[in-house]
Write a structure and sequence with these properties.
about 270 residues, mainly alpha
């Protein structure tokens, strides 16, 4: 266990050291977050009506509803893209083969590649929400932060399996997985990111019930806007954890098989 933690720390420190060489990026992302929060605030002022507020799951303003959906999309993108980007960067820098022949286990390699991107995404989301709270009245007084943290962890576990499957596709075919973008497109419509699921046609609401994104967003909004406890959110959390239990072992097995396949064919570092 101690060795695995040390290896995970080394992966994180490597990525952090690389990111620190581009310090202006942090400033630019903070400015981008300010304009992003402002955009949702003024769009919300334009479309907010009493009827719309009554349609929102936790009530309140459309600004709070839509900002949570937008930052959640950032998390979903991180879960789906992180492993692909890590593979591409390692391949382009010529370190992929060296990483994969080290004594680090496959789970440590996969998890270590994801730590820094997820931490960076979390910090970016904190900046978004902070701008929203300080300048535009995003409500944080009712948030249950323990539940928020647990929902975030369950969300990352649930969707990381899809990201690992996507990286397996990249290993085999040397190009991005189109199914990933199809999933994002469907989720942006039926997942409740920018409008409530209950305004969709009945058949799309049924589709939404089979999409874990719907449950993750419901849980996140309930924890942030209504202070919901873990016990109150047992149903969406159960769906997310069951998704993780199903997808993570399958995705790791597929990734291991794809890795063996590319080593046998000698195409591991081919672009």
């Amino acid at each position: 266990m101690t060795r695995a933690l040390r290896e995970l720390w080394l992966f994180f420190w490597r990525d952090l050291s690389i990111a620190r060489t581009y310090r202006t990026v942090f400033v630019l992302e903070a400015i981008e977050a300010l304009f992003g929060a402002a955009m949702f605030y003024y769009v919300a002022r334009f479309v907010d009506t009493p009827e719309l507020q009554r349609a929102l799951p936790q009530g309140g303003s459309y600004f709070a509803f839509s900002l949570i959906g937008f930052v959640f999309l950032d998390y979903l993108n991180a879960a789906l893209d992180t492993f692909d980007r890590s593979l591409e960067e390692a391949r382009n820098s010529g370190t992929l083969e060296h990483l994969l022949v080290t004594q680090a286990s496959l789970p440590v390699f996969v998890a270590g590649s994801a730590i820094y991107p997820f931490v960076a995404t979390t910090l970016r989301i904190v900046v978004y929400v902070a701008w929203g709270a300080v300048l535009f009245g995003f409500p944080l007084h009712a948030a249950n932060w323990v539940t928020v943290g647990i929902v975030l962890l369950a969300t990352l576990l649930a969707f990381s399996g899809l990201g690992i499957l996507s990286s397996s596709y990249l290993l085999l075919f040397k190009r991005g997985n189109p199914a990933k973008w199809f999933f994002l497109g469907v989720s942006s419509v039926v997942g409740g990111m920018l409008f409530p699921v209950n305004i969709l046609p009945d058949w799309l609401q049924v589709v939404a019930r089979f999409n874990p994104v719907t449950y993750a967003l419901e849980a996140m909004r309930a924890a942030l806007l209504a202070g919901a406890t873990v016990a109150a959110l047992w149903q969406p959390l159960t769906v997310l954890l069951l998704s993780a239990l199903l997808l993570l072992p399958v995705s790791m097995a597929v990734f291991a098989w794809a890795l063996r396949r590319t080593k046998i064919t000698g195409t591991l570092t081919h672009r």
